[in-house]
Input
Amino acid sequence: MKKSYLLSILCVLSLIFSVTSYASDFTVDQQSDDLPGNGSTGFNNTIGQSFSPTFNFMDHVELKMNSQNPPTTVRVVIRATPTGSILGSSNPIIMTNTVIELRHFEFAPIDISAYNELFIQVERVEGLAFGLFYAGDDTVDSYTGGKAYRDGFLSSFDFWFRTGLGSVPPAPEITVTDSVAPELDLQVPFGSVTEMSTSDKMVTVTNDGGQDLLIGPIAISNPLAAPFSIVSETCSNQSVAPAANCSMTVRFAPLTTGAANDSFDIPSNDADEDPVTIDVSGMGISAAAPEITVTDSVAPETDLLVPFGEITEMTESVQTVTVTNDGTANLDISSISALATPFSLTTDSCSGMSVAPGADCSLTVRFSPLSIGGFEDSFDIFSNDDDENPVTVNVSGTGLAILPLDSNGDGISDADAIAIGLNPLVLDTDGDGFSDVDEVGGDVSNPTDTDGDGIIDALEPGDAAYDAGIVSELPLESGDSVTIVTAAGEMLLDVSTDPVTTGPNGISFPFGMVNYTTTVVPGGFVTVRLAFSANLPNPLELHKVEAAVFTLLPTVNTDPDGYWTQIDAKTVDITLKDGGAFDLDDTENGFVVDPIAPGSGEDGGQGGVCDGLDPVTNLFPICLQAHSAKKRLMLLQSKNKASPRAIDRAQSALDDAIAKFAELGGGSIPGL
Output
């Protein structure tokens, strides 16, 4: 019979049934019946065919299948009638490809000798659809048609069966499973088991044959060795009836850490599976215990040393210490010992804590030296780690002296810069293009003064630093400056400026005091020019200053020892005699020492002593000169070592002023 059908389904199977007997001879018996629809049979997703067996036992069915839309899973069942009890059920086959090939469905041998007719059914287990085809002759490789099958519907079909002749006696069939999936792989993996503990797995032996399964002594010819053992079993030397089973308990009890592997044999009278070998494996791991690990934020982090290095006194540095539990049980930290000054623990999230496996806590350690020098200390971390209790952490650090402030970063501290007259906020105080550092030289306590005038190079701009006859732009208390130039061929020495803190009543000294010494021909006169950057006070008077005693310099050449002349609003010339009354050292030695303070007052500078005199007349400066001469005389007379000659000169200056004042018609000098 030839039939062809059009397939329009998601999954197609091409089948040829081959029901194999245990006899060596067989015949092909074609069976052709119309199959009822789904509604009349009540079997969803199932098709079947009846046949008359000519043999006594069957154990598999072969189907040639083709899947058009995988996956679809099917199985074969054998029934006495279409709705009767199942005599045998095969393993399921998953259709995963579209290739036509022979599939093999196995089941335990079925005794069918008592049946005149059986019913073979193909059931869909999972998937959407499948189809059946039939062969046009008696070979399994030839088939020309088929029938689409979906959702339990099939109208009719033809099957080809291979039917055998004769019978086969029953035989035992051993099947060994275990309690670890996949259960049929003859592998018993215990996985990780803590040392000094045990883990048990079950192995089951089932007789899937038709004759009693005789089991010999288990694990004798191939025994298990420690840490594996069989702690109980009901199989050795036992006879297991068909469909019955026995079992054994296999134990893994590692005493140490590490991997372990072994195997044992199950002997039996199964002709093609004797013995069955079972492989066992496991991994011993450490028993649950805490494991303390202490690290810090200074590399190397695990050396239990926390070096802070060099820290300036009165400052501080902090580092972090971390405690981690690398064990398998809680790490209980009972306490942490204290540190002594200059070390301290500023934060502590560890003391009294229970740290879970894999977790951590931390400490903050501070080093705050109050003095210079090296410091060392240590602290202990107490815990329940049996082999590391306590853990000692060592700390160290060096205190350095406080670095002096250096605002401009030139290497000269602000204090040193101010001490030698530099501006600590700029790099070139005198603005001559040469840095203060270069002009000061390598020793800030002895700054360079190339021309020896008492003004260091860093305060004299340009060539003035190399010309002893000039001091250029010397800073004054007012913020202005003065340039001092001595006579040609002479040198300036000991040049400086000072504030005027006390002075005559009613007189102000906006520029402070200018100090200098100039060389001169011994006993001779020398003229020094002072050029200020701002206008001088008006009216102007110049005071010689000695030991807080202010003496007016005369403005006209009436004094044999010196006088001053105003050149313009900013400039005065001062002419003094070496060893004269206005030479501070009172000695004819080739040097004139001249501390001078430019000042001004509303009453002419004498607090009313020359009151009533017109400042623009000649009487006014002579009055001032007389008072200054008197002060000078009184100062010299108060000195124990003042020379008689100096006293005589001061007395002569006073007498000359009195006489000059009278000569001009002034009479007696007021206040004298």
